[in-house]
Amino acid sequence: MVKKLAVVGSGLMGTGIAQVALEGGMEVAVYDIAEASIEKSMATIRTFLQKKVDKGKLGPEQLEDMLRNLKGTANLEEALKDACFVIEAATERMDVKKNIFRELDRVAGPGAFLASNTSTLSITEIAAVTGRPEKVLGTHFFSPVPLMRLVEIVRGEKTAEETISAALELARALGKTAIVVKDVPGFIVNRFMCLLYNEGAFQVQNGIARPEDIDAAMKLGANHPMGPLELMDLVGIDVCYYALKGIYEATGDERFKPCPLFEQMLAKGKLGRKSGEGFYKYN
After folding, report:
1. In the chain, how many domains are there?
2. Is 78 a catalytic residue?
3. CATH number at residue 248
4. 43 domain-assigned
5. What span, in angstroms and rounded, lies between the C-alpha atoms of 223 and 235?
6. Rounded Cα gap, residues 150 and 170, in angstroms
């Protein structure tokens, strides 16, 4: 059983992973280079757990125990100390992830498993920059982590069976259903979702319909809980763009070539909910 989990990255995904790990009874350390991001992450976790107390889903004593097990830090050595499992949840860029994994390999204990929450990038390529590729794998959680039940466990070319077993045990402890998938660009879910994202962006760019009508069409006509544009705003326009770009560069498949609208939105800082504007505007 994982006693201490270290999460590298305190954004939306890292915060969600940390929260479910706390609820799973683990000690959790959240690392980020930005102090402000760490503080926001800690506040978010406290807020969501307090809501569970208010609804009677958690007792006040349970909340206190969880918060005692939570630590946010800008010191990587402190975060990784005694951690037997590390999950990276940083920007969806291969150069960033490789740099992080070089550091994780250097700092983490020799027995620690190193996982990436990447949604599209090659685990085999990430693992190659470490001296322990057999202990590197993908653990692709979905947003929002506390609500979404699936985790894609991604097996790199050199990932050991022991590593996969440890990840499956972790997923069960977090209350998630895990599936094991081959290391292919986009894995399973995002090979479907990125096509939907791209088509949604092209429909907006080409003036086929208003964003709200495109989303309504998919919710009412395909029974999707959220429309593709709403979902991209929630996940982050930058995250969706880099996911598409990653699959396109890995496969050369023109279906995944990002719609030009994505780059225009990024240039204007329209990243979705986190920036206050994406396909929609937010307060």
Report:
1. 2
2. no
3. 1.10.1040.10
4. yes
5. 20
6. 13
In this structure, what is the dihedral angle of CA atoms 268, 272, 276, 282, given to the nearest 10 degrees? 130
pTM > 0.70: yes or no: yes
Q: Which of 240, 146, 138, 121 is nearest to 179 (CA)?
A: 138
Q: How many residues does the chain have?
A: 283
Q: What is the pLDDT of residues 196-226, one digit of tens each?
A: 999 999 999 999 999 999 999 999 999 999 9
What is the CA 234 to chain-centroid distance, rounded?
12
Exactly one of 92, 116, 140, 198 is catalytic; which is it?
Answer: 140
The residue among 147, 182, 217 that closes a domain is 182
Cis peptide before 258 (omega within 30 of 0): no
Q: Which of 37, 41, 119, 122 is catalytic?
A: 119
Residue 101 shares a structural domain with residue 216: no
**Active-site residue among 10, 41, 122, 190?**
190
Strand order in the sheet with 113-116: 70-73, 27-31, 4-8, 85-88, 113-116, 136-141, 150-155, 177-182
Quick: pLDDT tens for 103-161: 999 999 999 999 999 999 999 999 999 999 999 999 999 988 999 999 999 999 999 99
User: What range does the domain containing 87 cover?
Assistant: 4-182
The single residue of 23, 88, 92, 152 carrying the catalytic annotation is 152
- Check whether residue 159 and residue 251 sit in a common domain: no
Q: Is 119 noted as a catalytic residue in this protein?
A: yes
Residues 29 and 160 in one domain: yes
Cβ neighbours of residue 222 closer than 8 Å, sequence gap 6 or more = none
Classify residue 78: in a domain, yes or no: yes
Residue 152 bears catalytic tag:
yes
Phi, psi angles (nearest 5°) of residue 145? -55, -45
